[in-house]
């Protein structure tokens, strides 16, 4: 079989504990994200993990608009804006450009990380096709990082394909005609991308409440070679309507309730990690109400709504082929009636 | 490479318009080529993949999942420092639309071939200029080519001009009439092209050794300054197109300008046309002259930047002007005619009677006889026409 020419990647070993994490910052002051913004933390940790030899591409979204406002920039590394649905294709274009220039000796041949980030609107909705295409191009090294704050947050909180069931957004306001306007279950983006792209070597879900784990997944995604994908779960005080001091705690609760499972798929092998692994091994999950009722976006939920949400999460853990990852059932699936 | 060597490494080959532009792209040595198929453009990119298989083309060819992604990849690769090429048509350029604005705003000198084809609905596969003319305001230079030869030559000139003023450029040929028509084409040798087109070495690119942020949000004043800078660059492009066309002529024997005047001296009627139809108009002019009708042709090659002053000068002595559009801005009329009228009016030549004819919409054939009919009709009319005249109804 013909050898596929691939640029070398940087070898980024995992940080062994928080004290070993680099103190250098490459996402610095000069942005105007909200107090308690977990996505801003994700940006900071992502580039801290990647290091200075990195090009970052940002699709339209709050992490574009709030960060690089009015010709200011918090990015110490090269950064460019790409369009809402173009994180995948822009990452591919950059990686191809670097490869061509290095192959022809027009640039020093040394590993440069390419990371394209997108929100859930850009990644799980509009840009899904482009990300999918990029994950099949195994000769190009790039990481797509989806920061999921579960709404079109940049345009003031509209429902996306990644918004959880029942949440109040400006496109799904609860009212007297319909208590639950957003009745779609959240899209399983990471699982779908992992299952559908057998030559993509690395897909992971991360949560910045577990910062060292999160950074180490980024480092692994950049080191392993080829296109990779990371789905980050980002509590959003403005969009989810909670006190900014709870961002970290909600990130933990999403994992502890089993709503957002942490896992990585490396060369086709699925591994739950962190508290998700403990759940998979039998530790009880916290009730989803502990997570939901801390957020104004679920304030209209009745007991039936909470039960429905719990039942769907229970299904994910008890019935899925691989809990939290692959949604196929071993038996015919009975419908859980919506309240 | 087959064909017959003519001058200094130049080879004469029998090529379709699509394959001619592919040879133009080959000679420009693009480093990244995102590819996505659409009829009738696909043979352009297929030919480039053949070149990749013979080892003649060493750039990265990336198969993407949409035209939108093709242009997004072009922009990112260009900002990384690579010379890029792609081609599209019809629905493809429509899907790219937002990224066309993006490419121009990012000041990336992407070169793209667009094959003029009808837009849906109804579905069709034939020549119509509306797909590229709809991109008029995107900040792309636009060249309308009369032949495969000119399209090949224009691809190379588009790179030279685009990379000097940092604007993207579109090279346009019509579906079937040029894209799929075989004609003898001179393919310039690599050495000549190397003298004409220096390597792409942008001052700014995404480089970890010298970080910069591209595409930040702006204040109204910053946005305005950015747009005005693009507009100014378009102004510079006018001169750069003329200079590139001259230099290319010196090197290959085939020079080009923003427009071309053919037998317009003492003409009492001047046909104005762009693209392949201009060739038909040229034939009509010759036949009219033989019949004693003093007719001429002004061919519009460059549409953006619009060479208004050159057009006004060329038409200054013309008795009647008949602009022939293979497009229709629904609710208004022929787009080239609007532009010509506006240019003449702005330059104080509003008295020039400009008549608007729509011909060949949707790929309907426009024969030399039809063009002659248009010229005669224009000569016989008083004043101008508020509504465009349908040439097929004459």
Outline the structure in words.
The complex is a heterodimer of chains A (339) and B (394). Chain A is α/β, with parallel strands linked by helices. In chain A, 33% of the residues lie in helices and 15% in strands. In chain A, strands 2-1-3-4-6-5-7-8 form an eight-stranded mixed sheet, sandwiched between helices. In chain A, strands 9-10 form a two-stranded antiparallel sheet. Chain A starts with 37 loop residues before the first helix and ends in a 10-residue tail after the last strand. Chain B is α/β, with parallel strands linked by helices. Chain B has a six-stranded mixed sheet, sandwiched between helices. In chain B, strands 5-6-8-7-14 form a five-stranded mixed sheet, sandwiched between helices. Chain B has a three-stranded antiparallel sheet with strand order 1-2-9. The mean pLDDT of chain B is 96. At the A-B interface, strand 1, strand 2, helix 3 and helix 5 of A face strand 4, helix 3, helix 4 and strand 10 of B. Strand 2 of chain A pairs parallel with strand 10 of chain B.
Structure characteristics:
heterodimer, A: 339 residues, alpha/beta, Rossmann fold, 8-stranded mixed beta sheet, two-stranded antiparallel sheet, 10 strands, 33% helix, globular, B: 394 residues, 6-stranded mixed beta sheet, 5-stranded mixed beta sheet, 12 helices, 17 strands
Give the secondary structure arrangement, pairings included.
The complex is a heterodimer of chains A (about 350) and B (about 400).
Chain A: H1 38-50, E1 54-59, H2 62-65, E2 79-82, H3 87-103, E3 113-119, H4 120-126, H5 128-134, E4 142-148, H6 189-196, E5 202-207, H7 211-223, E6 227-233, H8 237-240, H9 247-256, E7 263-266, E8 269-272, H10 274-280, H11 288-292, H12 303-318, E9 320-322, E10 326-329
Parallel strand pairs in A: 1-2, 1-3, 3-4, 4-6, 5-6
Antiparallel strand pairs in A: 5-7, 7-8, 9-10
Chain B: E1 4-5, E2 11-15, H1 17-28, E3 32-35, H2 42-54, E4 60-63, H3 67-80, E5 85-89, H4 90-105, E6 111-116, H5 130-133, E7 141-144, H6 148-165, E8 169-174, E9 183-187, H7 190-196, E10 213-214, H8 220-252, E11 259-262, E12 269-274, H9 276-290, E13 295-300, E14 302-304, H10 308-315, E15 320-325, H11 335-346, E16 354-358, H12 368-380, E17 389-390
Parallel strand pairs in B: 3-4, 5-6, 6-8, 7-8, 12-13, 12-15, 15-16, 16-17
Antiparallel strand pairs in B: 1-2, 2-9, 7-14, 11-13
